[in-house]
Specification:
Layout (H helix, E strand, L loop, with lengths): L3 H5 L5 H26 L1
Keywords: Ribonucleoprotein
Protein name: H/ACA ribonucleoprotein complex non-core subunit NAF1 isoform b
Organism: Macaca mulatta (Rhesus macaque)
Length: about 40
C-alpha cells in the first residue's frame, strides 16, 4: 500500500480519515476475495 499521499498532506478531520481507512479495508477484502475465487 502507498501512504506517500497520506503523509504529504495532513489530515485534520478524523471523519475523512475513518472513511478513507474503511474504503481501503473494502478494497483489500475485495482483492483477497477475487484471489480466492481465481485460485478455485
Amino acid at each position: 500500500h502507498r501512504y506517500c499521499g497520506l503523509r504529504s498532506r495532513p489530515l485534520r478531520s478524523n471523519k475523512s480519515h475513518k472513511v478513507f481507512g474503511f474504503q481501503m479495508h473494502i478494497k483489500v477484502m475485495f482483492t483477497r476475495y477475487c484471489r480466492l475465487l481465481s485460485i478455485q
